[in-house]
Amino acid sequence: MLHILNKPPHSEAATQMLSTLAKGDSILLIEDAVQALLHADWQGWNAATDVNVCVLKEDAASRGLSAAALNGHATLVDMEGFVELTAQHTKILSWY
């Protein structure tokens, strides 16, 4: 399943999303969710061993977090990568 999160990393939506993750899932952080790059303690990074965590490149850049995206926790994807992620997953759940 692909989980698309647009809320900050310590929001109710993020907490609910983390509680539903299963091995092999993917997370795409968009909009305000890219702030997770500033929080090394975010629980989503701990889940990264079982799930693929991606960050939308354009949203990271617009918030000045492109360098933080190189922290090794996440993969930067552009809009084309976003589309590829949606094509790879039969189920998609947006957390807004």
From TrEMBL:
Species assigned in the record: Vreelandella lutescens
Span of the secretion signal? none
Q: Which InterPro entries match?
A: DsrEFH-like, Sulphur_relay_TusB/DsrH
Coiled-coil positions are none
Q: Where are the transmembrane segments?
A: none
Pfam families in UniProt? DsrH
- What is the recorded name of this protein? Sulfurtransferase complex subunit TusB
